[in-house]
């Protein structure tokens, strides 16, 4: 009988203990939920300010990043190294385009752009920007569109800092030293740094050098139409809340010297009289307009002209 009573007591004590754990867990969860709700409401106010003061046609509002603080968003998805200008490796200037820019151009219509990818919770935008550029350059030289490996750069580029950021200028140099890039299929993206597993026999594309492109937006457009998609960088503050349309934030929201996100310029044109750049992002197809961000063209908005570059494939 004692054994049975003892067993019942043990069960009661265990049940109470588990119950207390549940209560503590619920309290923690509720506290975090409350915090996220507060952040969400503050972010809605920021999105409303962006909306009220936007000089383009953009719609800002609820996105998959709406419950993150600015600091969380920056440290998880952006790349603070881009605005550390002393780190930048000097690059050879690109020759200007042979002719003026056509009225509009989009490399998606010409087969030079792979589907939108997702960098996940890793500040590896620099790798996606560079592979996107090389995919375009390889296509223009060889007629084959490959999806190239960002994970190879995250793991094997000793000049950059994997998920903590990097510079396109460094990435080009690392690719040259490695001997090229494997495909996404052979070296799959994991979204965190691993031991380098590069195999030179699996190289699918290589580059010969890299170039820095003009900071003049008309020349950028002409070069893009003639030579292919361009690796660029910009201040991504407004991008946290962007849903669709042509974004044209005021400078107060989008300091052109504080660039923190690398992307791929694939085209340009006009929408209802508003000139835009078409930008391939690396936050998945559920971001913006099917993974794309459209930014006002003609005012160097958000520093879009500050860091334009391309690989060279001979």
Automatic annotation (TrEMBL):
<comment type="similarity">
    <text>Belongs to the peptidase C1 family.</text>
</comment>
<keyword id="KW-1015">Disulfide bond</keyword>
<feature type="domain" description="Cathepsin propeptide inhibitor">
    <location>
        <begin position="26"/>
        <end position="73"/>
    </location>
</feature>
<dbReference type="InterPro" id="IPR000668">
    <property type="entry name" value="Peptidase_C1A_C"/>
</dbReference>
<dbReference type="InterPro" id="IPR039417">
    <property type="entry name" value="Peptidase_C1A_papain-like"/>
</dbReference>
<keyword id="KW-0645">Protease</keyword>
<dbReference type="InterPro" id="IPR025660">
    <property type="entry name" value="Pept_his_AS"/>
</dbReference>
<dbReference type="InterPro" id="IPR013201">
    <property type="entry name" value="Prot_inhib_I29"/>
</dbReference>
<dbReference type="GO" id="GO:0006508">
    <property type="term" value="P:proteolysis"/>
</dbReference>
<dbReference type="GO" id="GO:0008234">
    <property type="term" value="F:cysteine-type peptidase activity"/>
</dbReference>
<dbReference type="InterPro" id="IPR013128">
    <property type="entry name" value="Peptidase_C1A"/>
</dbReference>
<keyword id="KW-0378">Hydrolase</keyword>
<dbReference type="InterPro" id="IPR000169">
    <property type="entry name" value="Pept_cys_AS"/>
</dbReference>
<feature type="domain" description="Peptidase C1A papain C-terminal">
    <location>
        <begin position="101"/>
        <end position="312"/>
    </location>
</feature>
<keyword id="KW-0788">Thiol protease</keyword>
<dbReference type="Pfam" id="PF00112">
    <property type="entry name" value="Peptidase_C1"/>
</dbReference>
<keyword id="KW-0865">Zymogen</keyword>
<dbReference type="Pfam" id="PF08246">
    <property type="entry name" value="Inhibitor_I29"/>
</dbReference>
<dbReference type="InterPro" id="IPR038765">
    <property type="entry name" value="Papain-like_cys_pep_sf"/>
</dbReference>
<protein>
    <recommendedName>
        <fullName>Cathepsin F</fullName>
    </recommendedName>
</protein>
